[in-house]
Amino acid sequence: TAEKELLPGFHKFEWQPALTNVSTSCNVGIINGLSGWASSVDDSPADTITRRFRYDVALVSALKDLEEDIMEGLRGSGMEDSACTSGFSVMIKESCDGMGDVSEKHGGGPVVPEKAVRFSFTVMSVSVLADEEEEEVTIFRESKPNSELSCKPLCLMFVDESDHETLTAVLSPIVAERNAMKESRLILSIGGLRRSFRFHFRGTGYDEKMVREMEGLEASGSTYVCTLCDSTRAEASQNMVL
């Protein structure tokens, strides 16, 4: 049971309003890129080019993983646990990059393309705007935002990162799910009480090629300066002190 709790698809949740063009089912396991979703990796055919979790289901799993940190942050800020059931805000850093050559050199097993691309996300911070308060209070901040341990894999694609058509086909549903979540609130039980969360997404972990896939920009180069914060190039040019 402990292992199941760690995997997306275990916890019950709700979106208000319901996500557009996304199933209301909570118990979605691993989605197979060719043939719908399967309950386990073993059920999928060998020629599958991508496997992923549904974005909202993976975010729920990540938040439940941080449940103790969130509750500790509430107590540490001197806020009444029962008073904070709404007004939570979650900052998500998205990353997408090629993994280079991942082919099996020793032979055996199914033949797969040699290149792979991984899409992942990191919960950067959780803050709350308590009733009758004017300012948000940050109750959780990721101390190692560039660590592999805080980075949650969402989608693994056996595809070359320069294969624009395949990347677009695979990533389009992820983008659609992300856009739907921006317009809704997640209702999830944290610390024994149902609480509402809004999500904000920053694509600070994309390299130059991926920016065009994910953000639809014509020009090359990310608008963000670094992978640790969400400062843009425009802001940096104004804030720079020589």
UniProtKB/TrEMBL annotation:
One Pfam family here: RAG1_RNase_H
Residue ranges of every copy of the V(D)J recombination-activating protein 1 RNase H domain listed in the record: 90-222
Gene Ontology biological process terms, A to Z: adaptive immune response; B cell differentiation; chromatin organization; T cell differentiation in thymus; V(D)J recombination
Domain V(D)J recombination-activating protein 1 pre-RNase H: 14-86
Highest rank taxon of the organism: Eukaryota
InterPro entries recorded: RAG1, RAG1_pre-RNase_H, RAG1_RNase_H
Listed PANTHER family: V(D)J RECOMBINATION-ACTIVATING PROTEIN 1 (PTHR11539:SF0), VDJ RECOMBINATION ACTIVATING PROTEIN 1 RAG1 (PTHR11539)
Protein name, per record: RAG1
Species this chain originates from: Haemulon flaviguttatum
Taxonomic classification: Eukaryota, Metazoa, Chordata, Craniata, Vertebrata
